[in-house]
Amino acid sequence: xxxxxxxxxCPVYLLQPHxxxxxxxxxxxxxxxxxxxxxxxxxxxxxxxxxxxxxxxxRACTAASYPSMAALKNKIRRIGKRKGATLKDVSAWRWIxxxxxxxxxxxxxxxxxxxxxxxxxxxxxxxxxxPDWYYVRCAAVLRxxxxxxxxxxxxxxxxxxxxxxxxxxxxHTVNSSTGPLHWACKSLxxxxxxxxxxxxxxRLTRKGHKFADSLAFQVQIRKFGQSKV
Length: 229
Fold this sequence. Notes:
The protein has 229 residues and is mainly alpha-helical. The chain folds into two domains: 11-65, no CATH class; 85-223, Winged helix-like DNA-binding domain superfamily/Winged helix DNA-binding domain (Arc Repressor Mutant, subunit A, Orthogonal Bundle), CATH 1.10.10.10. 44% of the residues lie in helices and 5% in strands. The protein is built from nine helices and four strands; from the N terminus they run αααααααββαββα. The strands form two sheets. It has a two-stranded antiparallel ribbon. A two-stranded antiparallel ribbon has the order 3-4. α5 crosses α6 (133-147), α5 packs across α9 (206-223) and α6 crosses α8. The longest helix is centred in the C-terminal third of the chain and has 18 residues, at 206-223.
């Protein structure tokens, strides 16, 4: 069997030996005008997908089968508007920043005066540098209770712990201070978002679940919109 020097050897020919040599050479002969010397045995990158598929295939490739990225984003936005989004569907940091901004704008959370002086853990060397760190901690506590209903102050303290530097000795993980966690849970309880669990710990109320999912929906819409969180 005679093949040209630049004809691509295709597995379709091996799987379908009944095809004629002319059809295979027509389908898989590359365009040498655009290909370099090392790419002569491969099809051009601009070759349409229809020309690379076998003409005997049952389903031909059409442009409608591969929508554009804009159409895909619009479809995702329509699905999000119809079904909504939950806290687990969005990025953690985006949701926490959105919730902290909401708490600060509402002004219903009582911020203790000592938040500018205390450390969040005895493993930290300095106090938090972010002036709005208490709002961020309240949002993070709300998210932690959403993900783990019934978690207590011990679990929250372990969740927000960090590694402590002991100098030349090996560092160890220590728990965070429970004082800010108590204040955050009390503030969220006064807002009606958190309530004591059935047996122990804290859990979200129905209002808290609705609030968390509504913020997640806003984050999901902004992700596909013009602005970013």
